[in-house]
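$ run holo --ligand "NAP" --emit tokens
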Amino acid sequence: MKCALVTGSSRGIGKAIAIQLSKDHGLHVLINYSSNTKAAEDTLGLIKENGGSGELLQFNVQDSEAVKNVLGGWQEENADKHIEVLVNNAGVTKDNLFPWISEADWDQVLDVSVKGMYNCTQAVVTKMLRKRSGRIINIASLSGLKGVPGQTNYSAAKGAMIASTKALSQEIAKRKITVNAIAPGFINSDMTSELDQDMLKKMVPANRFGDAEEVAHLASFLASDKASYITGEVININGGVYS
Ligand code: NAP
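-- output --
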């Protein structure tokens, strides 16, 4: 059985991607999340309503032991199932001007995005290499390309994801595994719910924030056979705010 693992898919962009991958590709979706079981169950419910299948897999992506135990344990118990698509989506922000960013906030933002990507990719890539197929999609950000004031930690994390995407894609392209990054701009989700949308949308040529479903369609395309010659790319999805 072909599966997709979407980290941080209890809410927001990850949730929309999990639902879309199930709809478009019939993948059994592993819904990873940090603590919000109710929201993760909601994602699973929506997948099932559409006739799809999935299951919850709770672990903190930055915790290598937890990833080994929970994801590694799942893989051992499900040797017949193959994670064909990995979406490294879990991410957090802890915004502040640089002088006021605490070491803890610096580390956490980097650990969730970068260490999380390392932990989850490590767990699945060997089997992808053996099977000679796979899709790795890293959810980066406009911040990782442009650099955004007030987000030096987040910009560093997303920039690192982008550089790692490019490097890994070249290592494993021969084995028919693609590695790409998506760089969203302002997308409606809990992460952006506190922002002044009326003010910020004026900076966006499309004059609006994007929806998680719009990012999900792009991720679904990158996961498809149609995208098999696209690798090492960073694809902007930002309503024209940066290119
Ligand atoms: P969100 O609404 O805040 O959702 C975050 C998701 O990540 C939740 O499912 C959360 O799980 C999970 N999560 C957080 N820390 C985790 C951890 N340590 N281990 C496992 N799961 C964890 O965020 P979003 O807006 O959908 O963002 C998704 C991704 O897109 C992030 O990487 C973000 O940086 C990126 N992005 C977002 C925007 C935007 O405008 N929204 C723009 C550019 C890039 P719980 O529900 O259990 O807390």
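-- notes --
The beta strands are 2-6, 28-33, 54-58, 82-88, 134-139, 177-184, 234-237.
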